[in-house]
Structures are given as structure tokens and as C-alpha cells.
Amino acid sequence: MKKLVQTLKNIWTIEDLRKRIIFTLGILLIYRFGSHVVIPGIDASRISVADSGGIFGLIDMFSGGAFGRASIFALGIMPYISASIAMQLLGMAVPYFQKMQKEGESGRRKFNQITRYLTVVVTVFQAAAYLAFITTSSQGAIVIQNPTFFAIMAVIVLTAGTVFVMWLGEKITDRGIGNGISLLITIGIIAVLPGAIAAEIGARFGAGQGIALIIEFAVLFIIVIATIALVQGVRRIPVQFAKQVVGRGSKMMQTGGNRRYIPLKVNASGVMPIIFAQALMMIPSFFAPLMPDSGFLQSMTTGNYFTSFSYNAIFFIMIVLFTYLYTALIINPVNMANEMKQNGGFIPGVKPGRKTAEFIDSVMSRITLPGSFFLAFISILPAIIMVIGSVEPMFANFFGGTSLLIIVAVVLDTLQQIESHLLMRHYDGLMKGGRIKGRGGQAAVSGI
Question: By the 8 A CB rule, do 317 and 379 touch?
């Protein structure tokens, strides 16, 4: 307790860190407030979206309940995620976008600007589908008599809400602490957690299953530990730097010769494969209200489909593929090998240059395979828990799955950023035994 109090004092002492945390908390407060502001012309008490289960219940959880309340932030940040997926794929397949990504800071700004414009387009279509779903599933929820006026107004409000949420996330990343987009998703999930726990406790005690409840929390604790191990798992590649003699005469000295490590994370892609796969799996459900005669699309909105073998098999495969895809996007073995060679570093037993790049690529491929499979298994675990353990659907989403992975990864990343600010100013880290591991370690090459 004394260590915690001292750490909080240290955080408050650092002016820049204090301002960043206060700014982040303020933005999150604005986001939570906006999630309770209902779209004009809708009677929120008559909406039954949150009770529909299935994929819509999951979307409602990601938006912190805003989806079920028909809030101005009902679509949340998911349209931006969908647009980002499309742009990442275009960046790999289209030479124009490939060139843009290699143009440095100006190219990245232009690429991000196109992503924002695409987000607006995606939001317009998703907003129309969302309004159609409310109209068909919640009778009497729309109180404005002019349907054309309401549709235009609501689409504009929902689109503006998503763009505003996207802006809030970018502001957190620039001026706050942590990744803004991820934090907004996390705060929405955490907002649902107390209600999910209360519902599960009520259901278990109501059925006289107190022992089962204890077992559930024990299993949840084990899953959290395993998830933390996945997020922080690192394969360290030793790098040796050649000794160099600098200076003249009596001032000559040797530099280098020390050994450092390249930390390759078992799950280098973080939660992005989950978010990408989840966003793609949600797309058909948004178009289901527009095509009520399509039995295939309608089946994707039910709870049975969410726990079905076909859904989870596709979801599993997509996560594995996206893990490899995103890892290839963020880790470039050729650049790492070139920078290492320029700085006089080499991996013992491996020739510099192309051989080093091939070695790093082979190691990355080997550790990504088990990491991607474990990541995919954790993601489909809630469906398994619901079928085997008869756990409440909302609470089951925290037994692994996207919810737990995002919470663990984002909380760890945020704490590591706070710890970095403390260590830069020669304060102790957040952990008594040393730094929170898994972020960077001793990187041999700058920028890794």
C-alpha cells in the first residue's frame, strides 16, 4: 500500500504525465457522457436492441451500451476499424497506397486522411442499416412522423458521432496517455462489466449454484493469467556489437562490444487481429435489416449463430490469418537487419545482411504460429463457455474473447507508458520487482 501511494505521488509530481492522465480521463468522461445522449426523435425506453442477443448484443458491449440506447455514439469506433482494415489491405495490394506508406510522415498523413474519409462512407451505410434495424425490431421507438426527415437527420447525427469519437481517440493518442482508439473500446467494455457480473451472480444464487459461481471466477482468474502471459511473451534474440576505438592518445577508449537483445513478441500484433476479424464478422449483421427476406443474413443476428461451430471456425481462421498479416505489416526483418548492420551489430552465428533478415523472419514465423493459435482459441472461448458452462452471455464474453484480450492488452500498454514516464525521470517503476515486462526490453535496433 505504501508503494502504491508513493507511486501515485510520483505520477502527480511529473507535470507532463499528470496533464496527460487528466486529459485522457476528461476525454473518456466526454465519451461516456455522449453514449447516454439519445438520437433526437427516438424513444429509448422502447428500444429492444440490447435484448436481441447474438452479434448485436456483442456490438452493444463494445459501445458501452450506446448501441442499445440508440445513442449518438451508437456505432462507436467500429466504422473506423472497418475502414482501417480496408486501407491496410489496399496498402498491401495497390501500388499507389504502397508508395504512399513509404513517403514518410507526409505519406502517412495522407493515408490517414483517406482512412477518415472512408470512415464517413462506411458510417453512412452502417447508420442506415442500424436505423432500419431499430424500425423493424422496436415498434414505436421512432416518434417523429416524417420518416424521410428522420432518416436523413439520424444518419447525419450517427455519422457525426462516429467522426467525433474517432477525433477523441486521436486526441488521446496525441495528447493523452495510451492508444486512444483502444482506450475508447476498453472503457466501453469495462462499463458493461459490473452489470454482467451482477447478472451472473443473481442467476447462480437464484438457482442455488454458489459453488459453480466460485469455480467460474477461479477459471476466469486462470484465463486472465494466461492472457497476460500471451500479451507479454517475448523471444529475445541476442545481438553483439563490435568494439570500436575512438579518440586519440590518452583519450582513446573502446566502445561497443556489449550484448543486447531484439525482443520479438509472441503476439506482436496485439489485439488488432481480433478487432479486424470482429469488424469483418459484424459487417453482414448491419446489412441484415436491409434484406429481411435473406434467411442467411437474418441468422447472423441471433445468439445461436454466435455460438455456432461455423461462426467460431471462421472467426478462428480469420484471427490466425490477420495475426500473420498484421505482424508482417509492423515488423520488417530486412529493415531490422540493415539497421543492425549499419550500427555494427550482428547476431552471433548469423552472417549480417540477408542471412540476418532470413533468421529474424524464420524466428518470427515460428513464434507467431503458436501465438496466433492461442490468440484465436482465447477469442472463441466465450462461445465454448456458454455452451458447456451455461454462463450468462454477457458475462461469458469476459472469459477470454475480444473483451478480455482488449482489456488486458490496453491496460498493460497504458501502464507501461506511465512507467516509461516514471523511469525517464529516475523514479521507480510501477512494479516493486522491476519494470513491467513485455514492452520493449533491450532493443538492439532503434525503432523496434
Answer: no
DSSP codes joined into one string, 391-427: --HHHHTTSSHHHHHHHHHHHHHHHHHHHHHHHHTT-
**pTM for the full model?**
0.75
Side chain identity at 349, as an amino acid letter? G
- Cα 154 from Cα 177, distance rounded (Å): 33
Give residue 136's Cα distance to chain centre.
32
Q: Are 285 and 272 in contact (CB under 8 A)?
A: no
Please report where in the chains the cell 428522420 appears, as a residue. Answer: 150
- 244-246/259-265 β-pairing: unpaired
Per-residue pLDDT of the chain in tens (448 residues, 90 and over written 9): 666 677 777 777 888 888 889 999 999 999 999 888 888 888 777 776 554 455 666 677 777 778 888 889 988 888 888 888 788 778 777 888 878 877 777 888 888 899 999 999 999 988 888 888 787 766 667 777 788 888 899 999 999 999 999 999 999 988 888 888 888 888 888 888 888 888 888 887 777 777 888 888 888 888 888 888 888 888 888 888 766 554 554 444 444 556 678 888 888 887 778 777 877 776 666 666 566 666 656 565 555 666 778 878 888 999 999 888 888 877 888 888 888 888 778 888 888 888 888 888 888 888 998 889 988 888 888 888 887 877 777 777 777 767 787 888 888 888 888 888 777 766 555 555 555 654 443 333 322 2
SS3 345: strand
**Torsion of Cα atoms, 88 then 92 then 269 then 423, to 10°:** -80
Domains of the chain: 2-424 (1.10.3370.10)
What are φ and ψ of residue 99, in 5° steps?
A: -65, -40
